[in-house]
Specification:
With 196 residues, the protein is mostly helical. It is 58% helix and 0% strand.
Length: 196
């Protein structure tokens, strides 16, 4: 992934810290939590914003890949699945006694105690981007859309090539088609992540 993407957000905020995790699965899940919380907290007029739609769709798609097709984005799918299961447990623990209409507030007010708690990191990221001034909100969704578009390109050559071949034979996932295109132009390995 481009090392500068998280540091060059047009909204003027530096989110480099949010790309510095052990695995791409961590990054996907932290940014998915943050994007989802921003989506919930958005004004209704954002719902038709093209960048809002792109960021929301890409975020959901990457989370889907982590949960249901981890071999397409990670060589070690077992690790990816373990991380995902830990996030589910974390969410259940955080939300076990919360009423439906209080979930957003609960998640937005989580303390960031450090460590590797993905929901807490996603909450911190969402809070950081929610602090952007109202006149710069359009940049927020443009920046999130740009992040997800670039991260999809980063993830595409990261998975198990045989998994991509198997999916391509069945029509393929979007990430598989990106993998095929990138492989055709000679990009066959994962770019260096932000934390390298």
């Amino acid at each position: 992934m481009g090392k500068n993407l998280c540091a060059k957000m047009r909204c003027g905020m530096n989110f480099f810290w949010a790309c510095r995790f052990e695995t791409p699965t961590h990054v996907v899940l932290v940014w998915h939590v943050a994007t989802s919380l921003c989506k919930i907290g958005s004004r209704p007029m954002c719902l038709s914003n093209e960048n809002f739609i792109i960021a929301s769709a890409q975020s959901g798609y990457c989370a889907y890949l982590v949960a249901f097709a981890p071999r397409l984005i990670c060589i070690n799918a077992t690790v990816s699945m373990f991380i995902f299961e830990q996030v589910i447990k974390e969410a259940r623990g955080i939300l076990s006694s919360v009423l439906d209409n209080d979930i957003y507030q609960k998640l937005m007010n989580l303390p960031d105690r450090g460590g590797h708690r993905i929901i807490q990191k996603g909450s911190r990221l969402a809070n950081d981007v929610q602090q952007i001034q109202n006149d710069e909100r359009d940049f927020l969704w443009k920046d999130l859309a740009d992040f997800w578009e670039e991260y999809m390109l980063f993830l595409s050559p990261s998975g198990d090539p045989m998994a991509h071949v198997e999916h391509l034979a069945k029509g393929g996932e979007f990430v598989t088609h990106l993998w095929a295109l990138l492989s055709h132009v000679g990009i066959s390995t994962m770019a260096q992540p932000c934390n390298s």
